[in-house]
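**Backbone geometry record:**
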Amino acid sequence: MIRKIKLVIDLALNIKTFFLKNSWVFISENKDWAIYYEGTALIKYLKKKGINGWISYNPHFVMNSVIHFGSLNVFYTKYEKQLFKTNKTIVTFYHGYLGMDKSTDKMINYLLSKVDEISLLIVSNSIMFNRMISYGVPEHKLKLIPIPVDEELFNTSIKNGITRKEIGLSDNVFTMGSFQKDGTGWEDGNLPKLSKGPDLFCNAVKSLSNIMSVQVLLIGPARGYVIERLKEANIKYVHLVLDSLEDVGQYYSLIDMYLVSSREEGGPKAILESVATNCPIVSSNVGMAPDVFSECNNLVYSEKSEEYVECILRFAGSQIEKEKLLGKYKSILKKYGWDNVIVSYIQIRKELGFNDEN
């Protein structure tokens, strides 16, 4: 029933393009998770620039507009459903590589077979840009646009009134944060999604616990694997599943450091969310991390837990090093906030022939 209701709403919205030409229709995954919220932010900031747009789950009946497929999976499953050829097609491809797994291989090969039909392929980091070039995608079809942070939702002024004690954490224990989905599926997540590196996260935290007292704040669904590993290591944790990803920003103030241990990423969003909330972060050398933190000395270049621990202690054990890291955040935020990044999307519209000044 819910799916039928969504379909009816989609059709009603998309039919508007008969009258509201030059719109921006962002096609999202059916599950309202990261891709949906990224699309919501994009549409919000496009509207601030006077450009009409909305989120849809289907490209049916869209015409004379930009159809923006929000992920590789969305493009693979929904591209053939558009009925009109009068649209400009954009695809955002966050992460993945040939040889990663059979499903990803199938979707990437499908994308590569359709490159001549799409107007533009957006990637969020230099790693993906160079990878697409190596796969034969012409450079004029590629645009590197980072995943920006919404400073209206993530900033140092957010006051939620929540304390560590209220959610079950100790006040004076070093607290690591991990706010993501890193288990397979949408249930318990006992089978790890290895691209997100939950095993590396647990290895690092366990090794850190041999040196200092540590506790963990987990946010997000399907965290079963991490929870079991933390239990086995006798490490205190609190796990929260929030109603909306837009509420995550309130919890960065409760942690001492955020840890990214992924093997493959488009962002992750936590990189810039940490910056916007002035939270120290250590990250594996994936996704946007080497672009954003090229001069921050907070990247880990191997999967060894001792190297994660060494990097964590660099900032946890030195106020000077911590202040050096935080001191670089202002210039990073200026470059990667939505107010700056939206300019790239406006430029895309001009390149695709849309004159928004008329």
About this structure: The two ends are 41 Å apart (CA to CA). The CA atoms of residues 183 and 189 lie 4 Å apart. The chain has two domains: 2-148+337-351, 164-336. The chain is about 40% helix and 15% strand.
